[in-house]
Specification:
The structure is a homodimer. By secondary structure, the first copy, chain A, is α+β, with helices and mostly antiparallel strands. Helix content of chain A is about 30%, strand content about 30%. Chain A has two domains: about 210 residues, CV3147-like fold, CATH 3.40.1610; about 130 residues, CV3147-like (Beta Barrel), CATH 2.40.390.10. The C terminus of chain A is likely disordered. At the A-B interface, strand 8 and helix 7 of A face strand 8 and helix 7 of B. Strand 8 of chain A pairs antiparallel with strand 8 of chain B.
Chain lengths: ~375, ~375
């Protein structure tokens, strides 16, 4: 068993707040998952967090997440038993228990899903994910960038349906099949992705993202307690850039093909008065345009924060009149490589745009 | 090993002709499968046929079929290796070899699919199926009528995608999930349904349908050789009823949700001159209306035959000007029970119609 530290109850709140910001509008509101996890903690559960580098190379790690259109989660609460189902399916399929679970995406509610299963099963969670944020599909993961296999993966629903995808031709086919099944499931499915070895997690996981989210959430909570600006705390914690401050003027949103797609228009306030900002999203914010000119795109993290509380605003929660501040946080370095950009830049989402970043001039210098 | 008799090359032709008639317009044109099976026979393969009642109760039987919109098969030939894929998947899943394979549906090309796999793998085929005809979905099978479990089942495509549905809430969910996956696969998938024990096949299989199709096909071929009326031979062989003779005047057809749906209008010729006949179909012919009045519905077999050759005409092959004769053949007795009608009468297809049959007055007397 690798060295680990138990995640505290206090840290759960920080994790939820930080992960929701890193979700860049998607990954699902963590609120229901946080409530369910706190209930498990109230019953005595404590989840150990282990560093990816402390895993044995041969360890088997389960990659846990919930898939679907975030808007559906507004009406469906979290249930640890559902999160456990695909984990058990995968253990049955491969014929052994997992040594640890990890996050598919640190962004949004999916930061909490592996903790729900781990709290029930008594497993540790690895301090790593495969996105460093949230993204709409497995094609956008670090494991896909690394050309690891996409199968097998398990999907379950809240009825009694269980699907195991035992082979897929590639990561795009993996996503195509999963997406059709989850739409039929009601645009929400519980999944356990292809198991990863400890070696694969070390080589291709995005390390330290659970601690990153906890630190980010802590900064926001502490700024609120001190009556300081939580948005400034986000920028300071993550080396971010402020993009725009204003008021949501228009939202266009539709749940299609298991995704939530649309755009939001924002009218400037304060120093941005007289300017407009447009955000386009597919579950997550993908492109930002200031007065019609693209000034940030995926894979940079485009986050919409409540201007007062610093709380993240999900794409399914955007509404007319909200006072928000758009910020950009730097993307994981892996996604800025040529192969990484193939999987995460706007063209990977069918958008005819190159990657644009406020961090771009310094990109080569990033670790 | 139960007693068996090898199916001869000559019988393959009869099987294809008879199965295509029993397909009631669906099940897919058997032509490609027949060519592939003859190629295997030319290489020395011979498939044993065993009676269902000769199976050991504990035998494990693989249920093999191809799923999808028949129209797609016009452009995709048969490949025994593809048919074998889901069989191997299922054997891996359950951890043992099958003792025999059986047909999901005797109708159309699916009569030949299990023979393709059996010829490659050296397995016998059981003289039974679960429909006694063709139907659009597993909900319409005798196994569903018997409330046997619908899972696990395996789906594979021509790329490298393989899906195992390890649990489903019921037969309708089984169909919903499979249908979405197969549409994504390109409206054609190779499947191995839930394995059945010898006992289950004895209790719930439709027995003798392979021999029935061979006898039907033989009757048609012999009538052609003797310059007798093949349509009359079909009626005599199966105790059928002639419904209408005429010329196809209009066809409306669309491939949606992995099904081929539509309707055909027929203008009367000979003794039916001055009358019209309308057929509605979902892969298979479901309802016949003579001059607007329903005179036959599923589960009775509604078959469209070329008026000269007696060859079946599939729903994907209907075209303006064809000279055709519509005939009705009696449904398997199981489907005429109240539970059977729940699964196979028009309401099981979303049609607001009761079962209507030219055989109805004598239905109680049928075995």
């Amino acid at each position: 068993m690798p060295q680990s530290k138990l995640v505290t109850v206090e840290e759960l709140d920080f994790l939820a707040t930080g992960a929701w910001i890193l979700g860049t509008g998607g990954g699902g509101d963590p609120y229901h998952g946080l409530l369910a996890l706190k209930a498990l903690y109230a019953d005595g559960a404590r989840v150990p967090l282990v560093a990816a580098d402390d895993l044995d190379d041969g360890a088997m790690v389960g990659v846990v997440s919930q898939m679907g259109a975030p808007v559906v989660n507004l009406e469906r609460t979290a249930d640890p038993a559902m999160t456990v189902k695909p984990v058990r399916m995968m253990e049955t399929h491969v014929g052994r228990r997992f040594d640890a679970l990890m996050l598919s995406e640190i962004g949004g509610g999916n930061a909490l899903q592996p903790f729900l299963a781990a709290a029930v099963l008594g497993y540790p969670v690895v301090d790593a994910d495969s996105m460093g944020r949230a993204f709409p599909s497995v094609f956008h993961t670090s494991f896909a960038v690394g050309d690891l296999t996409a199968h097998p993966y398990a999907l379950a629903d809240i009825r009694d349906n269980e699907v195991m995808v035992t082979r897929c031709a590639d990561w795009l086919w993996s996503e195509r099949i999963a997406r059709k099944v989850l739409v039929e499931f009601g645009s929400r499915a519980f999944s356990c992705k292809a198991p990863r070895t400890g070696r694969e997690v070390k080589d291709w996981g995005i390390h330290g993202t659970v601690r990153q989210a906890i630190a980010l959430g802590r900064a926001v909570h502490e700024a609120r307690l001190r009556h300081e600006d939580p948005v400034a705390a986000v920028l300071a914690s993550q080396d971010g850039r402020r993009l725009f401050r204003g008021k949501i003027a228009d939202v266009e949103r539709r749940a299609t093909e298991g995704h939530l797609r649309g755009a939001a228009e924002c009218e400037g306030l304060d120093e941005d008065r007289g300017h407009r900002y447009r955000l386009e999203f597919q579950n997550e914010f993908l492109v930002g345009r200031r007065d019609g000119v693209v000034d940030v795109t995926t894979p940079d993290l485009i986050c919409v924060l409540d201007s007062v509380s610093g709380e993240a605003v999900g794409t399914e929660r955007l509404r007319y009149g909200q006072r928000v501040t758009m910020v950009a946080l730097p993307a994981p370095a892996l996604f800025l490589t040529p192969k990484g950009l193939l999987h995460t830049a706007p063209r990977a989402f069918g958008l005819d745009l190159d990657f644009v970043s406020p961090f771009a001039p310094a990109a080569e210098a990033r670790p």
